Amino acid sequence: MIELFYWPTPNGRKIPLFLEEAGVDYKITHVDIGNGDQFKPDFLAISPNNRMPAIVDHAPADGGAPLSVFESGAILQYLAEKTGKFLPADVRGRVECMQWLFWQMAGLGPMTGQYGHFHVYAPEPIAYAQERYAREVGRLLGVLDRRLAGREYICGNEYSIADMACWPWIDAYDKAPFDLTPFAEVRRWRAAIAARPATARAEAHRSMRADSGPMTDAQRRILFGQPSH
C-alpha cells in the first residue's frame, strides 16, 4: 500500500494520476501547506525539503521496512519502476520519457510556478516579473505544442509519466488563466487526458480543499517567508 502525502497543488496532483491509472492501492494523508503541516517533524522525516508530495511504500519490492520517496518526479519514476507501467522498458523509449519528465521538473513546472506567483500571489504587481514569466511559459508551451504534433501523447501513442507530470501544470491558475489559443496540440492533448476515467478519479481529491478566499498574511509567511535555517 502506498501512503500519499498530498495537497492539491499541480505537483501534488501528479501522483494520484499515476496511482489511479495503475490501480495501485493507496491512501491519502493531507498536508495542509497553508497551515504549515509541511514543517511537522513526522513529515520532515520523509520529505526533508518540506515540500509535498511524498510517499511511503509500505510494501517495497525488497520486502524491507517502509520506503519513503520525496520529489514528484522521483515518485513517478519509482512508481513506474515498481509497477512496470507508464515508463517504456526499452532503452530509447525510457530515455525519451525520462528527458521529458525532467523537462517538466526543470522548466515547465518552475517557470509556470513563477508565473503564478507574480500574477496571483505577489503582494504587489511587478510588471517585469509578470512579463518575463509569461513569455517563458509561452515559449515552453510552444515547445510542448511542437512535440505533440503527430503524437497522441508526449512520447508517442502511449500515455506515460511524462504526460502525468506535465498535465497539471497546463493553465494551472484559475485567477490568472493563460491563453492557450495558439497551442492547438496542447489543448487537444489536455482534453484527451482530462477525459480519461482515471483522471476524473484522481482530480476528485481536489475537492477536499474548499476555497478559503484570499491568502492570509499568516499563510503568506508560511508559504513564501521560509528562512534558510
Mind sketching the topology for me?
Blueprint: E1 2-6, H1 10-22, E2 26-30, H2 41-44, E3 54-57, E4 67-70, H3 72-83, H4 91-121, H5 127-148, H6 161-166, H7 184-194, H8 197-203, H9 217-224
Parallel strand pairs: 1-2
Antiparallel strand pairs: 1-3, 3-4
Helix pairs in contact: 1-3, 1-8, 4-5, 5-7
Structural class: alpha+beta
Number of helices: 9
Give helix and strand order, one letter per element, not per position. Answer: EHEHEEHHHHHHH
Terminal CA distance: 34 Å
Oligomeric status of the shown chains?
single chain
- Low-confidence parts lasting 5 or more residues at pLDDT below 50? none
What would the CATH topology of the largest domain be? Glutathione S-transferase Yfyf (Class Pi), Chain A, domain 2
Number of strands: 4
Strand order of the largest sheet: 2-1-3-4
Beta-strand residue percentage: 5-15%
Tell me the Rg in angstroms: 18 Å
**CATH architecture classification of the largest domain:** Up-down Bundle
Q: What is the global morphology?
A: globular
Largest sheet: 4 strands, mixed
Overall average pLDDT: 94
How many structural domains can be distinguished in the coordinates? 2
Helix content: 40-55%
What is the CATH class designation of the largest domain?
Answer: Mainly Alpha
